[in-house]
């Protein structure tokens, strides 16, 4: 983690983009640490929040797109291989499958803000051959909400960004329902606006 922190401090936006992309591509990095750090460094460097946020969303979409493609072309065989090689991931992957089977495309968006599920939902969606347009639209909503929250907190707290992970662990059971409700509202609002435009 120190290595990644040094990269972010030394190489700025380029390092942030690559590390966020890797995190969303299932690289074992905690977003609860990396995203606030990126926000803190961007704030210290006086980088506009409206620059770092879209950049982070794009990085997230590319990263999750890699996992989605792996799931699409490799399907269950790759997921089973991951389970065998990394037994600790089985619980996360199974939870992702259950959530996806219950909610389909909604699970992609909501899964982005739920621990355990958020890491592997892309593999599951790819293996299930979820429509790419639906997948990336839902992912964009979920990634935007998650990144706005964590990068925004780091951006506001700056040198005290380390508190974000502490607060997240302490209040995540209250935070997650709020994020789910927010994601649901954004999805419903987007669908409503799209239907309204079609009527016009």
Task: For the structure shown, list the relevant keywords.
mainly alpha, 200 residues, 8 helices, single chain, globular
Break the fold down into its secondary structure elements and pairings.
Layout: H1 2-24, H2 31-44, H3 49-85, H4 90-103, H5 105-111, H6 117-127, H7 132-157, H8 163-199
Helix pairs in contact: 1-2, 1-3, 2-7, 3-6, 3-7, 4-5, 4-6, 5-6, 5-7, 7-8
**How many distinct helices?**
8
What proportion strand?
under 5%
What low-confidence regions span 5 or more consecutive residues with pLDDT below 50? none
The assigned structural class equals: mainly alpha
Task: Report how far apart the termini are.
Answer: 52 Å
Quaternary organisation of the protein chains: single chain
Overall, the morphology is globular
Gyration radius, rounded:
17 Å
Largest sheet, described in full? Answer: none
Order of helices and strands: HHHHHHHH
Mean pLDDT: 77
Polypeptide structure, described:
This protein is mainly α. The protein has helices at 2-24, 31-44, 49-85, 90-103, 105-111, 117-127, 132-157, 163-199. Helix 3 packs across helix 7 (132-157). The longest helix has 37 residues, at 49-85. The radius of gyration is 17 Å and the shape is globular.
What's a concise summary of this model?
This protein has helices spanning 2-24, 31-44, 49-85, 90-103, 105-111, 117-127, 132-157, 163-199. The protein has 200 residues and is mainly alpha-helical. Helix 3 packs across helix 7 and helix 5 (105-111) packs antiparallel against helix 6.
């Amino acid at each position: 983690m120190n290595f990644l922190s040094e990269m972010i401090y030394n190489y700025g936006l380029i390092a942030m983009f690559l590390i966020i992309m890797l995190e969303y591509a299932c690289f074992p990095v905690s977003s609860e640490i990396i995203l606030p750090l990126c926000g803190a460094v961007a704030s210290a460097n006086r980088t506009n929040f409206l620059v770092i946020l879209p950049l982070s969303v794009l990085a997230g979409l590319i990263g999750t797109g890699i996992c989605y493609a792996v799931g699409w072309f490799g399907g269950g065989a790759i997921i089973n291989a991951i389970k065998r090689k990394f037994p600790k991931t089985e619980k996360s992957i199974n939870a992702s499958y259950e959530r996806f089977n219950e909610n389909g495309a909604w699970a992609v968006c909501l899964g982005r803000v739920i621990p355990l599920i958020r890491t592997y939902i892309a593999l599951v969606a790819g293996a299930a051959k979820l429509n790419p347009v639906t997948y990336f639209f839902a992912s964009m909503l979920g990634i935007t909400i998650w990144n706005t929250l964590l990068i925004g907190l780091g951006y506001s707290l700056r040198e005290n960004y380390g508190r974000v992970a502490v607060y997240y662990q302490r209040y995540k059971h209250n935070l997650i329902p709020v994020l789910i409700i927010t994601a649901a509202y954004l999805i419903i609002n987007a669908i409503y606006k799209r239907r309204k435009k079609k009527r016009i």
